[in-house]
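Annual report, structural modelling task.

Input specification for the magnesium ion complex:
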Amino acid sequence: MIEEGRPIAVLPPGLAQRIAAGEVIDRPSAVVRELVENALDAGARSVDVAIRGAGLESITVSDDGHGIPAGELHLAFARHGTSKVRDMADLDAISTLGFRGEALPSIVAVACVTVTTAVERDAPGARLVMREGQIQEQSRVARTVGTTVEVRELFAGQPVRRGFLPSPRAETAQILSLMRRYVLAWPEVRFVVTLDGRAALRASGLGEAGAMAAAFATHAARMAPFGPLSAHHAEFGGYLGDPGLTRGDREGIILICNRRWVTPARWLAVLEGAYRPLLKPGRHPVLVVKATIEPRYLDVNLHPAKLEVRLADEDQALTALGEAVKAHLGRMPPRAALLDPASGAPRQAHLALPRRRLAERTGEYGSPDPGRLHVLGQVHGRLIVAVDDAGLYLIDQHRADERAIYQSLAARHHGSRTQELLQPVQVELRPEALAGIETTLPELARMGFRCERFGRRAFLVRAIPMGMPEAVGAAIAAAVDEVATAQDWRESIMISVACRSAVRRGTDLTGGEMRALLDRLGRCASPAICPHGSPIIARVGAAELARHFEWR
Ligand code: ADP
Ligand code: MG
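The model returned the following structure:
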């Protein structure tokens, strides 16, 4: 027998509100987020956040934004009461952080809220106290233009919710992490966050450099400006941590899209993918990427917490972003761990940087042009020691040659010149490799290796690409066998040939050979990273040396 059901009824408004509220306002940091976003949407230039008892005692957010007219104050607390969206067209081009009109009603459903606000300099402002979703008190008060929202007794009426909250320590960390994101997204806004009366985060609102220092402290010195990069309706910029600056979690990866911090899974995957070959397993990079996208090309209304976004032409834009980050990292020499990690503020805000080739930048972050380094000598038969005004460089000779060979193989095209080998190299193939021989030989020819069949199981290499060391002939033989079944055959061949024919460690080099090697490296797009993803250059920056020796 079917158990008798209860009659269908429409929930009384207070109850319905609580159910919905559960989804939006689930912890104190969610309140902080909504109040700060409202302040920013109101055009605030200064936002003060005061937290007591990890947010359960009180959360107070004060701003100097445009305020709320007294006559509209009660509407701010009505469900779907919003000043930001009027019709469907507005929803297609959202330029504010909030737009659903749900935050304040959700908060008053689970807390006691006091708002004081004023819209005009010399006119009285309004004060409203809400408790259990009802207006308790309404009055006129004096206040400078702006709004203060104080939230107390959060979840006092929801003992179960209180029981499931993260620890005060975790919640406080979450609030600070959140605030760092706003600091980065709104560098021209002054923020002060206090925890139980103690200042915990302070950003001047004077621009990117200050925001980076506030958000990343001393690590900011290890993050290099990136961009601007224009790609399919999006413009990207930001700061990329050097590959030695990593974390065990993804907390250091900050994405900001039209001033909204977001965590879209695909963007994260693309950025992490670009760093992956440079990081140890389980480590994650530290970076800030900001995207500016015309609102009509961006959908922010996908996710209840607005953490996902979707961009028109997302595939192309993300591919371009991933490639640019890879190229940037390829030019960025990992800092040698010869000295203690140095501290300091970032050299320059990216917004102030003119649009010029990244490779041209010099200084602490700059990418050295190996072709312009002054060679001092060779040490241990493995490293070339060189200098320029920005610092001292150690260059792995094998990897440098490997990169240069790889690059010239990759740059070759049909009809590029070849050179005959004095002595053709004979290549015996294993049965597995033999199967693909019909396609292998023309492919090799395109890369500049002229080969011909020799008996049933072998072929001869007769010519190699012009300008390559003769050792490449023998290297191709081994490479073809090695990578016969590789997924990305062409790429694997190039990497394998480069590795096998590059000058070995332990080989003494003359001054002329070192010079020629650096010149070839200087013509590569990614001179700092070898084709396997390992570092080629270590730099000890001039600024680091000055700090180390305390030169003033
Ligand atoms: P939403 O932000 O989605 O519009 P909220 O419930 O967060 O919804 O806020 C409702 C309305 O209250 C806003 O649209 C805005 O008009 C007003 N409001 C809230 N906070 C502030 C503030 N700090 N300054 C000015 N107006 C505010
Ligand atoms: Mg809002």
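Residues 34, 38-39, 41-42, 63, 65-68, 76, 81-84, 98-104, 147 surround adenosine-5'-diphosphate (ligand 1) (CB under 6 Å).
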